[in-house]
C-alpha cells in the first residue's frame, strides 16, 4: 500500500520530521523546515505524501501541496539527487522559485539549499531545463490544503504559472520560450496567482 495523503492531528515535530496521528496510527514523515514551522502539536493538518520504498527502508516525505510533491518527484529523477537533497531544494526555493531557477538557468540560486553544491545545482538545471512543469498524480494540481486547523489555512502554490505556460504553448510558442516569458513576467511583478495576468505579461515578454 502506497500512502499519498494524510489528514490527522499533529503529535510532534522535529528538526526534519513530523509525527501525525491518523485514526489512532502514528505516521512519521520527513518534511522541510518551512512546512514544519506551520505545524503545531494538537492541531489538524492535511499533507500530500510521497512514499519511497527501498530494499532497506520505507520513507514518507510530506508536502503542503501536490505541486510541491510533483516537483520533488521530478528532482529525484535527476541522477545523484536523493530524497533529502530534493526536499532541501524545495524547502529553500519552493515550487515557483525552483521553476524560475530551471527556466532562467540560474543554478546559483539552488546552492542556497542545504547540501547542494555547484555541480549538483548545475546538473539539476541541465536535466530539468526545457521540460514541462510536472503535474499532480492524476494530471491536475488541486487547490490549497490546510496545515493547521480550519481557522488557520495555509495557502499552497496555485499552479498558475504552469497553466500560463501551457496556454502560451497552445498559442504556438515553444515550451522553453513560454516558460522563460512567464518566469520573467513573475519576476517583474505580475500576479503569480492570476493565470490571465501571467499570460498577458508573458505575451509582452515574448513580443519584446
What is this entry, summarized?
By secondary structure, the protein is an alpha+beta fold. It has eight helices and five strands. The chain has helices at 33-36, 66-76, 83-104, 107-110, 118-128, 160-170, 175-187, 195-207, and strands spanning 5-13, 17-22, 25-30, 44-53, 58-63.
What keywords describe this structure?
alpha+beta; OB fold (Dihydrolipoamide Acetyltransferase, E2P); DNA polymerase, domain 1; 3 domains; five-stranded antiparallel β-sheet; 8 helices; 18% strand
Which SSEs are present, and which pair or pack?
Elements: E1 5-13, E2 17-22, E3 25-30, H1 33-36, E4 44-53, E5 58-63, H2 66-76, H3 83-104, H4 107-110, H5 118-128, H6 160-170, H7 175-187, H8 195-207
Helix pairs in contact: 2-3, 3-7, 6-7, 6-8, 7-8
Plain-language structure description:
- The structure is a single chain.
- With 208 residues, the protein is of the alpha+beta class.
- It has three domains: 5-63, Nucleic acid-binding proteins (OB fold (Dihydrolipoamide Acetyltransferase, E2P), Beta Barrel), CATH 2.40.50.140; 73-128, DNA polymerase, domain 1, CATH 1.10.150; 160-207.
- The protein is built from eight helices and five strands, in the order E-E-E-H-E-E-H-H-H-H-H-H-H.
- The protein has helices at residues 33-36, 66-76, 83-104, 107-110, 118-128, 160-170, 175-187, 195-207; strands at residues 5-13, 17-22, 25-30, 44-53, 58-63.
- Strands 3-2-1-4-5 form a five-stranded antiparallel β-sheet.
- A hairpin with a 4-residue loop joins strand 4 and strand 5 (58-63).
- The radius of gyration is 17 Å and the shape is globular.
